[in-house]
Amino acid sequence: MKRMENIFDLSKNGAKKVYIDGELFPIRVGMREISLQNGEKVLVYDTSGPYTEENHTIDIQRGIRKVRENWTRERFDKQNFHTQLWYARQGIVTPEMEYVAIRENQGVTGENRITPEIVREEIAAGRAILPSNYRHPEAEPMIIGSKFLVKINANIGNSALGSSIEEEVEKAMWAIKWGADTVMDLSTGKNIHKTREAILRNTPVPVGTVPMYQALEKVHGKIEDLTWEVYYDTLVEQCEQGVDYFTIHAGILQEHLPAALKRVTGIVSRGGSILAKWMNINKKQNFLYTHFEEICELLKKYDIAFSLGDGLRPGSIADANDEAQFGELKVLGELAKIAWKHDVQVIIEGPGHVPMNKIRENMDRQIVDCAGAPFYTLGPLVSDIGAGYDHITSAIGAAMIGWMGTSMLCYVTTKEHLALPNKDDVREGVVTYKLAAHAADIAKGHPGAAERDLQMSKARYEMRWYDQFNLSLDPERARRMHFEMIKEGADHCSMCGPDFCAMKITKSIL
Amino acid sequence: MKRMENIFDLSKNGAKKVYIDGELFPIRVGMREISLQNGEKVLVYDTSGPYTEENHTIDIQRGIRKVRENWTRERFDKQNFHTQLWYARQGIVTPEMEYVAIRENQGVTGENRITPEIVREEIAAGRAILPSNYRHPEAEPMIIGSKFLVKINANIGNSALGSSIEEEVEKAMWAIKWGADTVMDLSTGKNIHKTREAILRNTPVPVGTVPMYQALEKVHGKIEDLTWEVYYDTLVEQCEQGVDYFTIHAGILQEHLPAALKRVTGIVSRGGSILAKWMNINKKQNFLYTHFEEICELLKKYDIAFSLGDGLRPGSIADANDEAQFGELKVLGELAKIAWKHDVQVIIEGPGHVPMNKIRENMDRQIVDCAGAPFYTLGPLVSDIGAGYDHITSAIGAAMIGWMGTSMLCYVTTKEHLALPNKDDVREGVVTYKLAAHAADIAKGHPGAAERDLQMSKARYEMRWYDQFNLSLDPERARRMHFEMIKEGADHCSMCGPDFCAMKITKSIL
């Protein structure tokens, strides 16, 4: 795996892995430190886990270090495992909470910094989650909530048409290299169990799934054969493997279907369409809704979070903010309150395709209907005609809704609506979404978020080219583009040439 | 030029060039008609001029058809040439005004359609411009104003470091193929005059320039040798060639410099930095400001529009919305009123780098300070750390400010801050900006703007793949991505595979 180890070599980009020790607990929080040519150092959030440690060797069979193993075992031995939400409500700060507070600060130390107590408060109020299945101790703690850095998720997973287990693990590694805060394994083809196992054992960020996909594979794709029992067994299987959050489409109900079926693009959520068909065949209510409290009791045992799926998210501008979508959203809010009753953490999934003028209403309604539970959106895409550029169509909506308060953005790749993304598409999608999330962090005034931009701008003004590359979200691409046209050591770039550099001229005035 | 002719073959994308006749004048307005597999037709705005006519042959030496030649000659023979603004103020609808009204409608015929009278009113009020140097009769009329479709500009032009005349003309053709509404020739290297001549004679959209660049070349790059006379001669030369709008940095004044020089990134506008240095050397006021009325009188003779340059646009998040920027904006507003006094059309240039939370203030202040003159922004970029992805960083800001009322968006390419864009970058930049502009058109409710999205969504739901490609902004890319993984005629795509297609499942319920 030398090839994959090379992609995690931070020294090529003027950076190294550093650790900040906890004050309350014996924890070490990994960060990335970028060293600048002027001697300054910039500390940034890092999602790459042990991969970027010096001399780390990759062994997919063995998996990565179980960073949280001791923390959780201690709680287990005492037979008193609880969810992060339970602890938070008791007023107890956990090691996980201190960990994410340190991570979020990126070196900010003043009054504005995020404290472990703020983390606890936000979790207790249901406004943030800290996904942490104890069976996935490889995952470093991270937090999803509107008071924190906007997070991004990268979807990976094979479909019936392609890709091996190793390819999927490499996609997961690739995604976290570029900054994915969580990955969702959306495999629907062969080897679902084994693919997921390999991903979990090798991924230092929380992993999400849509268990319905595997449940349906178990009944050979026959929706009429789906039962609560098959689904429940699948849940247990995935709980045990270590999945940190489940997309569960428990909010789509029989009464929503007439409105949904009248739409321009009907139901575009795979999980939503499966349940709609099941309800239609069986003339019964959604079994995820009727069995919701049983699911709560199961998830509570592992501290797995709900990601309440929006089976009725709009698939076109024409369907945005319609009766079907907002009808389901209200149900998701009711379910969130039930989950909280069981001390289970919850996030709410959102659209989809939404024109810019209708984005604000999505955010405002979600906050009210779901009592402040974190919002997790797919884009939204602000037009339907961007095929081949939908990472951009959706990044526009994502940045806006992130600023308005959405806590996590699910990336959309350039191949959306067209094909399954390859590694290049994953990189392009992740970096695009890091940009959207970062723009949202700046706009909402997250402490220290604009510090990296400030350092970048100073480097730009002083023509410190390597600092510019290293402070970028994709140093390798920036470096390559620059050197395609210019020699090492130039005091200008090929955009304006040597005589027309505005910054050079400005400095010559001073 | 067979190679370039091939890029304009609309039939490959299920489309053809059609013409709509004027009702008031004997004009023919070229549009693109996309034929769908279900027999429906979609009419869309088209910027490609005669290039997409069947059997059009390209001859760069000869140039393209002079579509407006007869319209303007008639006015000249009578010795009573006036600007579009003059006509509009007299209550006179010109052929150009009817032309743009037909173009803007894209087939919308109802009460919401844009009428020639609406065009006239908007121009008369200074809220829109119709750039139309009579010496550039190759340009098809188009309108820039907040009541109309959001337009995009693509910058081309060589720098001291590269590219030939032919390459620049091909870049212009390439830009209009993908939808650029205007192009700016920002050449600063050799052969400025000849490059511009070739671009003008071969470009069916308005062409803008920054005359200062050539003026500076005339004094061999020595800012201290710049004079009003050299600049004025350059203006006359470019007026005669047929440039349709000039970026003129007449608003940056001596009194702004102390604030500008204290900034993190100083002055990042090339024109602005040149004038700042000139003022500093000569201890005199900006000569473009002191000679502004002379410029008005010159531009009026050709109906060339001012694009009042923002020499003090912020080059970093840290400098956004600062004293220097808004100080200059007020001066631009005063100058706009002077230009209007001379019946000269005006747009106002805007930033730059602006975080999302500060975009609205830019738009609101511009409307007030510049009395509603159209706003023309560069992005804005919503973060500084997107090097290598700045077409996206800026498209986020561009879409938002377009929705808020900006009339034209200047594209930013992926190479921004790094290198001069090549043809691939121009395509990526133009299509990205078409998307941003289109998203803004939808959000602001432009009549019929969402029709193409609706057709696309219906095609998606019905798995009409070729219709999806042909309705996309970049049909060629969409088609290529789709067929990389799937065979012709499939009833699903490789994203979800045959069994997990939500739309298929939805339809099976009905």
Automatic annotation (TrEMBL), chains A, B:
PANTHER family: PHOSPHOMETHYLPYRIMIDINE SYNTHASE, CHLOROPLASTIC, THIAMINE BIOSYNTHESIS PROTEIN THIC
Cofactor binding summary note: Binds 1 [4Fe-4S] cluster per subunit. The cluster is coordinated with 3 cysteines and an exchangeable S-adenosyl-L-methionine.
Source organism of the structure: Alistipes ihumii AP11
Enzymatic reactions: 5-amino-1-(5-phospho-beta-D-ribosyl)imidazole + S-adenosyl-L-methionine = 4-amino-2-methyl-5-(phosphooxymethyl)pyrimidine + CO + 5'-deoxyadenosine + formate + L-methionine + 3 H(+)
Pfam families: ThiC-associated (PF13667), ThiC_Rad_SAM (PF01964)
Keyword Zinc (UniProt): yes
Positions bound to [4Fe-4S] cluster: C493, C496, C501
Organism placement in taxonomy: Bacteria, Pseudomonadati, Bacteroidota, Bacteroidia, Bacteroidales
Stretches assigned to the ThiC-associated domain: 14-77
Root EC class: lyase
Keywords (A to Z) from UniProt: 4Fe-4S, Iron, Iron-sulfur, Lyase, Metal-binding, S-adenosyl-L-methionine, Thiamine biosynthesis, Zinc
HAMAP family, per database record: ThiC (MF_00089)
EC number(s) stated in the UniProt entry for this protein: 4.1.99.17
Pathway: Cofactor biosynthesis; thiamine diphosphate biosynthesis
Top-rank lineage group of the source organism: Bacteria
Cofactor(s) named in the record: [4Fe-4S] cluster
Name recorded for this polypeptide: Phosphomethylpyrimidine synthase
Family: Belongs to the ThiC family.
